[in-house]
Design brief:
The chain has 159 residues and is an all-alpha fold. The protein is built from ten helices and no strands. The protein starts with 6 loop residues before the first helix and ends in a 7-residue tail after the last helix. About 5% of the residues have low confidence.
Length: 159
């Protein structure tokens, strides 16, 4: 049915055959993300079986579509929801949206996301935003990096 262009019918048959992932693949390929999410909401269950499971791949595909369409804010938000912080930081970094990078940075766990926090610090330092860069280095506990930041920004009293 999908080859004939009858995508809705093909998805219905996949759902009846308990092959929800195939139906979701059809909808995401067609960039019909709302339909894919609705399918998962109705039929997809997580391991406990009590709440719908939202596959991060849908969010990532939607984020890639939004990014390619020039909707960088929506793309970055979707990457954050999917747990792809690096991609979101890079998008905001290209747009020089330091406030959004800081928002992501302060919600990152140092143990799990050290490279992402370092990337935030790099964007802050590159933009010359001493305060944000300082906060990122303090989150990391990187005293050497903090001292280099103070020296590079000529903040002698803080150094």
């Amino acid at each position: 049915m999908a080859y004939q262009g009858k995508f809705k019918e093909a998805c219905t048959n996949y759902v009846k055959a308990n092959m929800i992932d195939k139906a979701v693949d059809i909808y995401t390929s067609l960039k019909k993300f709302a339909e894919a999410k609705e399918l998962i909401r109705k039929h997809g269950k997580n391991r406990q079986g009590d709440q719908p499971y939202l596959n991060p791949q849908i969010l990532i595909k939607q984020a890639e579509f939004e990014r390619d369409s020039g909707n960088w804010k929506e793309a970055a938000d979707l990457y954050v929801q999917a747990g792809k912080h690096k991609e979101a930081i890079e998008i905001y970094g290209k747009q020089e949206n330091l406030d959004q990078i800081m928002e992501i940075c302060k919600n990152l766990d140092k143990q799990k996301h050290t490279p992402d926090i370092e990337l935030c610090a790099l964007y802050f330092k590159k933009a010359g935003h001493h305060t944000f860069a300082k906060q990122a280095f303090l989150r990391l506990g990187d005293i050497k990096g903090l001292m280099k930041l103070h020296v590079d920004c000529q903040k002698w009293d803080e150094a």
